[in-house]
Amino acid sequence: TVQVKLGKALAEATDIYILVDTSQSMAAGADVETQKKMAADPEMRNCMFACHQALETSQTYVDTIDVARKKNYPLRLDLVKASVRNLIKSATDLKGDEDSDLRIGIYSFASDFKEVARPSIDLQSVNKSVDQLAISPFNNGTNLQYALTKLQENIEANARPNRKAYVVLLSDGVSDSGEVVQTSVTPANPMGHKFQ
What we know:
Blueprint: E1 4-5, E2 14-21, H1 32-39, E3 53-55, E4 61-63, H2 64-70, H3 76-95, E5 103-109, E6 113-120, H4 123-129, H5 144-157, E7 164-170, E8 194-195
Parallel strand pairs: 2-5, 2-7
Antiparallel strand pairs: 1-8, 3-4, 5-6
Helix pairs in contact: 3-4
């Protein structure tokens, strides 16, 4: 399980950009036990990944994502979505009834980059947008460098004076593609944020 905890300082004049990997490797079983069950399941085409459209008959395709959902197999993306909701809940709790301008935005990437929720102080609305996170239908890998470049553009376009911006990257790190490019995104943990 991934747990995200926020320091009190994040409730003050901060923007949080959540970047979520939705590539097909995120459709793997959430844990080793689930992966074993999926790999032994003929309806899953004996594969631990729920990312296939398999030919069942000469006319019919079966989407293994649908099979995984029907059988309640938890996937990696499910864990990530729960973590994003946990982060938003923590931020909401920190804000309390105070008039805070903490903003959270959500973006997804695989070989592409999408804005799921524009940075907003309406955390309830941002939380609802988590449901839009879904496995990419394209098997073109995980282009993290492209995603970071596009995210940097979004951060610059949405920048506010005297505000800090934090990036939370949630990925399994599998199948990175694309050229390595220099960005000014720097990994940091300056305020006691814990990522387990």
